[in-house]
Amino acid sequence: MSIVAINKLTFTYSSKKLCVIDDFSFSMNKGEIVGVVGESGCGKSTLLRLIAGLETPLSGKIDISEVTVVDSRTFVPPERRGVGMVFQDYALFPHLTVAKNIEFGLHRLSRSARSARVKEMVELVALAGMENRYPHELSGGQQQRVALARALAPKPTLLLMDEPFSNLDAALKAAIRSELREILKKAEMTCLFVTHDQQDVDALCDRTIKMGERIAVQSERISS
Amino acid sequence: MQQLARLLRDFKKHNNGWLWISLLAAAIILLPLLAILASVGKAPNENWSHITEYMLKDYVLQSVWLVLFTGILTVLLGVILAWLMAGHDFPLRKFFRWAMYLPLTIPPYIGAYTYGNMFSYTGTVQTTLRSMGIKLDQAYFDIMSMQGAVFIFTMFLFPYVYMITVSFLEKQSGSYIENARLLGRTPVAVFTRVVLPISRPAIVGGVTLVAFEVLSDYGVVNYYGIQTFTTAIFSTWFGMYDIESATRLAAFFMIGIVSLLALERLLRGHRKFSATTSKNSPLAPIRLKGISRWGATAFCLLVLAVSFVIPVGQLFVWAGWTYEEVLLTSDFLEMTFNTISVAFLATAFIMLLSIVVANMTRIMNNSFGAALAKVLTLGYSIPGAIVAIGVLSIFIWADERLAPLYSWMGRGDAPLILSLSLGMMVVAYIIRFTATGYNSVEVGFEKIGLKYMEASRMLGIGFTRTFFKVDLPLIKGALLSGTLLTFIEIVKELPLALLLRPFNFDTLATKSYQYASDERIFSAAVPSLFIIAVSLISIIVLHQAGKRVV
Ligand SMILES: Nc1ncnc2c1ncn2[C@@H]1O[C@H](COP(=O)(O)OP(=O)(O)OP(=O)(O)O)[C@@H](O)[C@H]1O
Ligand SMILES: [Mg+2]
Question: In sequence order, what are the residues at sequence separation of 6 or more whose Cβ sits closer than 8 angstroms to the Cβ of residue B102?
Fold first, then answer.
């Protein structure tokens, strides 16, 4: 089943400038983990924002789970797309503690299920004992892990991640990567993530797309 | 076709309760103003030729002189003080830097009757001089005149120019001024060749605020017997009971104001308050030496004395004579209650509408949103008397339409129900003062940006719930200061209250003004001090907010 299908997507931030994304097509199957690479400023974050519903395309169509979420007539708001996102700048809620940040998207679960899920996530990102801190009391890497945990917690069908490991040290990165792949596969989550790190690609991705050229170049994962 | 479909999609995207409340807010503000403009199209009645012949030219001229002279003097005083504070060090500078805001706590109409009485034949100044055996010509004390009004406006409004210019100079002018000093320019040359030209945008911004205040004023000019456009509207309305002509006057006045706004744009050039170079270094003050060192302190002391200490001191003396009588009359409590409840009601609506519209425009992020924001802040540049006329004509129109309903309800044939209600005053305040609340809320939203809202929506929380769970707690501070500032503006306001208050409904401002007009100036002291005390809070809030920004 195709989870994401993008057809001839075009987008620009202002009508005077060149299109950031021009006639872009692409699709992903359920459970796939796809890396997005490309040089800075080529529109990777923009692509993620379009899929999330935080920007509206000029033309083209996006389907998520075989439902059209945006075309020239339709627009499904971000909160109803079932898409999770780890932001490049984390965007942790400054007025909420780590635990409350992670719990934020779990409003559909019962209270006990909620706290169990928070605990699970905190352990995944190795932040046990810091649940009651506020974001400004954490280091950059710790904040990034909270952002990851917060996005993973509601188990979205599609997870978008914008450079989710850029601020982590090598050891932590390796540990989280392998565990993340396991979690994603177990929950059958589909994941699209932006990275500059070839190791991320090797360890996590089934395939990558390279943005920047007019037509995205796709490469298959060399399965071992 | 495609275009149309996309337009419909984008409309649906924003089609929620927030949008409709925003449109309602825009309608509330625009309708009365449009109603005024529409009156230009109607044929004038028989009073109009009389008005144009005997009043219009003089009134326009007086208004123009008043604005012009006040403008020049506030710029002189405001910029000199700003330059003194920003570029120099002298004893008590830190204190004066802040204290120069204090004159803003005294509404000019209170300053006007305080000084008016102090300079009268039986007032403090002349009796003191006489007791010292000095006898001077009465003409020297003629403050109830054009010069007097300009003096009053200058002394109590110059902080607008000072406030904006001093923070501009402190933050942005370092590199220019230090260059000029290094080139060995004399202090006067630095001031005229560098300081004045580079602070032009700040000065224009400040003096525009001054001009709006002067044009909107009724208290000072009426007390001093000067005929301006605002008094023309008042006397056409209450003297001739000719609302039609009053509306027509208001329309021409409004067209004038709009031209003035366009002029401001032009003068300010395309830049806003930020300077043009990227090297905006803060300015390091130089230490004054010798006579000029104490001269600067003395000058600041003199300005502060005239514009704050003396009038407040005089009011305290008068309050001492009359507080028992004023406080014990039961209507003092009543008018305090009236003031607070009207201000509270209007402020609540203003903040509500501001939040809704500001939140809506920030997600729309297009020219429609920008236009909405413009409309909401429009009222600040429209004098109170004009707003009052507009609101009145809309309410009378509504009463006429509702007349069948009234008679069906057994309330008589042609009663005025809406247009005699408190609702009219509240709506007028919403129109006039939404800008104050809206600007605070907008600053709050700008500071947090969109990312928290986006993060929340990505976690499955809708726009409205996101507002309550994320945005509201994060803009609390801005919201609080916006609420306070708006509340205080309304408490101080005079012309709208005078024009639109229901029969027998007094506020602190209207009552103190009435006392003063009825030659019971001493009784006006207590309510005036109340108003000044409340305004003092707003200066403190502004000061605190300013410290947080820096
Ligand atoms: N809000 C915006 N308004 C206008 N232009 C923007 C905006 N956001 C991004 N851009 C422009 O769009 C282009 C693509 O930006 P985008 O953030 O998608 O790049 P990116 O591939 O994520 O880069 P990086 O790897 O540095 O994060 C850039 O040229 C950028 O300058
Ligand atoms: Mg990016």
Answer: B159, B304, B307, B308, B536, B539
